[in-house]
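Archive transcription. Copying these from loose printouts into the bound notebook so they stop getting lost. Printout 1 of 2:
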Amino acid sequence: MGPGLPVCAQGQDERLKLFPATLFGRAAAILLSIFLLAQGAAMFAVWKTVVVPLTENSADALAAHMVLAAQTWVELPPETREDYEIELFLQHNLELGKVDKPLAKRVKPSRFGDLLEYYLARRTGQDIHLKQGPDPAWTWAEINLAGNLLRLGFVRDRYELDAPWEAGAVFLSGALLTLLAALLLARHTSIRLRQLSMSAQEVGQGRLPERLPETGADELKALTTAFNRMADEVQVLLENRTVLLSGISHDLRTPITRMKLALAMLDDADPKMVRRMEGDLAEMNRLISSMLDFARSLQGEAPSDVELNAVLAELAAASSDPDRVRFPSGAACRRRLSVGALKRIVGNLLENALRYGEGQAVDLELKCDARGVRIGVLDRGPGIPEADLETVFQPFHRLENSRSRETGGSGLGLAVVRQLAAAHGWQVALQAREGGGLCAEVVIPIAG
């Protein structure tokens, strides 16, 4: 198995998530999509209803002016034509003159140029193309009238309508500011919800989180107030449960002890019956011990810096059958966690593996990487049916095979393991081991 993979993994599929997982990410994606669609629709509407009609009107008006100027020049007496050309340039910024041969170079295609060629051709009945002269600022059109080749020129920037980029920029800036304001509101809401989520996790782990500030909008304030009240009530219920379990377990041991003493003082009783009763009392005592462990597992423990290889090696050496436990110590793996809880969890899983492993070796594995820690306990026993891999974590649940009361199980061991792991934000899972047997895995995230 490569580094970073779960110790019990058969294989994992990584799927690309195209849609953000967080509330803020989704809100940002939705708002951005709506913003782009709205901006696109608005710009398209402005282009179709404002820019295109203005461009068409400008090209049509310029074509009409150019044709009228050419027709006027033809109708004027030759001696007045020069004065008319000067007046046309000064008042309308148009140049007009008679030429002998046409220009060769055509201007680059554009929306305004195509429209102007179309309107000139429609008004003159000629195939007219815009030409480029020596001065790149001027654009020329050549018209044949009354046997004269007339060349008319205009400054393109004076007549061609530019797209209203300034107005579009102002409109875009306003819409962008609106989007940023909406994102800030969504960010603020997502932060509050994240705080609620983290506090809910602490409540689920049996801890009382810091009270959240009951401020903000009415809906968030009401939600925070209800959550704080719920957290207080849950904490009281957990404390009452712990006290109740501890009290009942402690009080039950007194009559059991008296019954043991009474059995020991019987002289003429059937020895076989006495042994059976002593066995029942011993089993009751084991159940009470398990219930006390279950109650203690609900109480917190201060974390400390530990070297996990040393902890697991100590557990393997202190197990009921250390010769069967295989633990290849690897690279150093230091973490800050509750070592007592870790020993109880892994020790319970290890003893289960030794008890039900049918005398075969039990593998203890440790994987330590940037994402967290994974500890695996793998045996070659009969395993657990897939349908029971989760139900075995329920208190007093037993299987109808070798994992039963006759082999020493009380039905509380795995329940204690799951409860204790959850109280520290860890995860415990069981799955079938490839080749037969069972793999129990403890996952400790990097935050733990």
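Printout 2 of 2:
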Amino acid sequence: MMGDDVVLPCQLKLAVDTNAETVNWTKPGLDPNVVHLHFDGRLVFEKQNPSYHFRTRVFEDELIKGNVSLKIFKVKLSDEGTYRCSIPWIREEASIVLTVGSASTPVIKVMSNVSSRVVLQCESAGWYPEPELLWLDGEGNLLSAGPTETLRGPDDLYTVSSRVTVEKRHSNNITCRVQQRNTNQSRETHIHVPGKSHLVCPSQVVAMMGDDVVLPCQLKLAVDTNSETVNWIKPGLDPNVVHLHFDGQLVFENQHPSYHFRTRVFEDELIKGNVSLKIFKVKLSDEGTYRCSIPWIREEASIVLTVGSASTPVIKVMSVVSSRVVLQCESAGWYPEPELLWLDGEGNLLSAGPTETLRGPDDLYTVSSRVTVEKRHSNNITCRVQQRNTNQSRETHIHVPGEDISDSTLPICVNVQAAFLVCIIVMLITWKLKQKQSDHRTDRQKKI
């Protein structure tokens, strides 16, 4: 095969040492016709045709056994033809015909999908010699197809293509086979043609604000949509085009400005019927219904995108009175509006004050609530904020110690404060007494 290495095998029946003798490989019709001339133990390079320079060798360690085979590296189409091996000193020669082949795997495309019929095209390039193209059904029977078109390129390689129209049936497996009998090469590709093709998308997708999201849509029949129209719109938007893929590229001028540089389709997957849309850095305004339509096969489907936002709640101790503690939980930056729950250490709901909800100018919600709990041993309290539509939940825990711990700390603090005050009073009294004694001494000295 073209590009491979090949050995033209030749062997003297009598194991004659030909290493020091002349072994001449020629190709009649070539000028000069010498492919490889082995003389006196080496290649005579200056006699060799330039197209074979550095591409041939004999097996020198095998020459002593009469093996005069020739190896050609990186075979070209031009290498095809008759080769003659001659050993003059024993007047022996023989010929070998080298056939060079080239092959590639065919590609099947869906050209049209209308009503109950599908038109398929199979194409395969890079063949040599000229191959034949066949269409087969699931049982291996030949299908009646259009004529095979054959093109021969400047590199002498052949490209073949053909179309066939098939009915949409259950388990309709179609094969395109390209084969070349002279080189014994065959390549084939399969495609399944089911019933009427339809677009499959989920009904809803959830994304968190700031994340990237994929709106998944797939044609059950792997239709190549890369060069066709795939239109994603958002009803109610003006203009309503989110992403218009036409003739292999995004039609930027039709796109709504809020989606500029934030959308893409998976171009390498379009050939497989994957028409999913990716939206980057999701905003709250992206929430809503999206519709994907493929006009040329009259298919469309809708997806509802729900956008969410969440944050971890913060618990604060608002007051500690006697045997009770008042706690406040607050969580900002939620969307849609969440609910706030207080739970005890066993996961039971606590009776709490009403939840206060504020909606900011950015449309994000802040929720807060207070609860009063008793001081008990191992009193673990949880504040949970959750949003069921987006399946988001965040929670924070706090430990409220028992009554014995908090009550014992209060007398200690009081005793320390009292001792501190007593010390200050004693110091002031002492300072006053010393000050009076100093004044009396000064008066006596003045009288004297």
